[in-house]
Amino acid sequence: MKKTQNIFFRTMGILLLTFLVSSYIQAQQKANPEIYLEAIKTELQKKWPDNRTINLVFHGHSVPSGYFDTPNVHTIEAYPHQTLKKVKDRYPFAVANSITTSIGGEQAEQGAKRFKEEVLTHRPDVLFIDYALNDRSIGLERAKTAWGKMIREAKGYGTKILLMTPTPDLKEDILSSDAELEKHSEQIRQLAKKYEVGLVDSYALFKEIAKTEDLKTYMAQNNHINEKGHQVVAEAIMEFF
Fold first, then answer.
1. Domain range spanning residue 57?
2. Quick one: 23 exposed, middle or buried, by C-beta within 10 A (0-12, 13-18, 19+)?
3. Is the domain of 4 the same as that of 73?
4. Which tens digit of pLDDT belongs to each residue from 44-88?
5. Beta bridge partners of 56
6. Are residues 106 and 204 in the same domain?
7. 52 and 13 in one domain?
8. HEC string of 192-232?
9. 63 and 3: one domain?
């Protein structure tokens, strides 16, 4: 009888441990692109007079701001407005805005300081965060703290969030696992899992491209993508829409 009880308790212990591990793994998964913006997609399909304005807010540095060959700014060709055009092509009845709160040269700590006053005031339905290129100047830990602060504040507001891994910098070897941008990309992937928010892995896409093509054809200068590069990012974003 005692032996049977021991087997029973061991079995129950294993089942409980399996359940806990499974629950932890599920809780650490980034948002599924097919369903994460389901409520937003429903709103985008509504016709007048039942529709409302959907705000897509892009927060970050020079890339979402539209800087190509500095100081030239190509707002319409940059991925925030390319995304808006693609959203409108897919949802013809939608009223949608593309709003950029990004500043060239800024890193995540600076972006976090003005987050409530200059970002959440736009009432974002979907928020994009793209700071990793410049976060190399503050390092991983400080960047992680700043990103976490912005994510928590946006989630508290009820906003859907898409985290952006960086676009390339030709001064780094994108195929190297030791590249600084690779380290920041991996941290962003982990943040997406931790907070269960969306991830647009631009860095991984350009890494694949670099295996067969010269990345210079996607770049306006060493650290800024051109229109073709922005097209890659916009198409990746559309997986969520």
1. 33-240
2. exposed
3. no
4. 999 999 999 999 999 999 999 999 999 999 999 999 999 999 999
5. 98, 126
6. yes
7. no
8. HHHHCCEEECHHHHHHHHHCCCCHHHHEEECCEECHHHHHH
9. no
**What is the side-by-side order of every strand in the sheet holding 160-164?**
95-100, 53-60, 126-130, 160-164, 198-200
Burial 25-36 (b: 16+ CB within 10 A, else e): eeeeebbebeeb
Helices (H), 28-107: 38-45, 62-65, 79-90
Question: In this structure, which amino acid lies at residue 72?
Answer: N
pLDDT tens for 198-234 read: 999 999 999 999 999 999 999 999 999 999 999 999 9
d(CA 198, CA 164): 9
- Please give the single-letter amino acid code of residue 32: N
DSSP helix/strand/coil, 119: coil
Q: Pick the range with the lowest mean pLDDT from 17-26, 80-89, 135-144.
A: 17-26
Euclidean distance between CA atoms 59 and 155, whole angstroms? 15
Residue 45 shares a structural domain with residue 15: no
Residue 22 sits in the same domain as residue 93 = no
| Amino acid symbol at 124 | P
Domain count, the chain: 2
Based on the domain organization, do 118 and 182 belong to the same domain?
A: yes
* Shared-domain flag, residues 75 and 21: no
CATH of the domain at 107: 3.40.50.1110
- Measured between alpha carbons, how far is 179 from 90 in angstroms, rounded to an integer? 37
